[in-house]
Amino acid sequence: MTDLSTQLIHHAYVPPAGFAAPQPGVFKASTVIFATVAAMRSTEWKDKSGYTYGLHGTPTSFMLEERLCTLEGGLQCLLVPSGLAAIANVALALLRSGDEVLLPDNAYGPNKTLAEGELKAWGISHRFYDPMDASDLSAKISPQTRLVWLEAAGSVTLEFPDLLELARICRSRGVTSALDNTWGAGLAFQPFDLEPGAGTGLSVDVSVHALTKYPSGGGDVLMGSIITRDAKLHMRLKLCHMRLGLGVAANDVEAVLRSLPSLELRYQAHDRAARTLAQWCTQREEFAQVLHPALPPSPGHAHWQALCGAASGGAAGLLSVIFHERYSQIQVDAFCDALKYFKLGYSWGGPMSLVVPYELASMRMAWPSHLARGTLVRFSVGLEAVADLQADLTQALGAMT
Ligand SMILES: *Cc1c(COP(=O)(O)O)cnc(C)c1O
Question: Domain containing 345 — which CATH number?
Fold first, then answer.
């Protein structure tokens, strides 16, 4: 198979006659004109055979949907206004009062907040499972469980679960699995073919992706996608998407289309720099623990290696450190404040490095035994020169004591 970057750049696309530019046009519309009433009545939006209204898709949005399917190995795609909207769309489409959803204890925070807020108010219950203990997921699946969220690596703490085993459990128990694939980005592993070449067909059912992160790559677009390989499941998600009126702006879609050809290149650069810094952090006595799936002592490293290590070995651009307990919150805050290139800000995937201190105690059921006690700081490594970032960490650690 041709390399992914090549496929994304040379993607099947027919420009308007007489205008052979390689870049796609930006089609903006709410209204779409029909030639006749008969055409208006017969044009179908559900199967993408025609255009009916801006909310139901344009040539621009269909193009991004197709390319994201190529990226993640799916067959159907929905675009939504943010990564969180993708998570919410999946929950609202697949869950009803009396149902239960299971989330990993290290899930993306707002996914938990959605469960604790809106879902609970609608009579949908939730429980958290230990992502590093497949038997805990197995034990928590009940007759009410309709959806299991998966995340690899987990948010903030970056533990890498045994995704194959978790997906196998969901499959064997007949529960829909939805992966938040923002970290993997379609590059670190293949969510719809978790054992490439093995022919087992082991796969997640749904992959959601915060395009806000690596696919946009600019820190200037909010968007999410929901990808499936099952037409029936896609239709349930799509009908909910339509009823909720979730649309994306063509200019934003174009920004993601413009960034996609460099996705793999950027991901590899973020990845290289993050590994260099993670390795360097292990030499610093200030840190009790360095969390990065490619580091052998990091929780779940063997699972990462089994799933991602054999191929290109993708590991994204995130790393977290846990300061020794002797450092107070005030000292760690001072470290973050002293950083010059790592800016204080949420999100990741853009060119600028970012840093966020987290209060882990408030985020987990209990302090996980595989994590050292202390204040956690997460770095999102941007595209700056790694030597400059390392010098920045050094001077900020010096400013802390
Ligand atoms: C950022 C993020 C999201 C949400 O994306 P937004 O576009 O910011 O709503 C979801 N999941 C993960 C893992 C993320 O990092």
Answer: 3.90.1150.10
Query: How far, in Å, from the CA of 352 to the mean position of ligand 1?
Result: 17
- Using the atom order of ligand 1, give the atom closest to the CA of residue 222: 7
Q: Is 183 found in the same domain as 85?
A: yes
- What CATH number does the domain containing 162 carry? 3.40.640.10
Domain, as residue range, for 327: 262-398
Below-70 pLDDT ranges, the chain:
1, 13-15, 310-312
Q: Which atom of ligand 1 is least distant from the CA of 183?
A: 13
Question: Running DSSP on this structure, what letter comes out for residue 16?
Answer: P
Q: List, for residues 10-36, the tens digit of each pLDDT value.
A: 877 666 777 878 888 899 999 999 999
Residue 366 lies in a domain: yes
Same domain as 322, residue 307: yes
Ligand 1 pocket test, pick from 113, 181, 182, 220 with the greatest ligand atom count within 8 Å of Cβ, gives: 182
HSE-CB of 42 using CA atoms within 13 angstroms: 5
- Edge-first strand order for the sheet with 76-80 is 76-80, 224-228, 206-210, 176-180, 145-151, 100-104, 125-129
| Structural domain count of the chain | 2
Pocket of ligand 1 (CB under 6 A): 82-84, 108, 155, 180, 182, 210, 212-213, 222, 224, 347
Structure tokens at 95: 């869950």
Is residue 232 located within the same domain as residue 155? yes
**Distance from the CA of 310 to the center of ligand 1, in angstroms?**
27
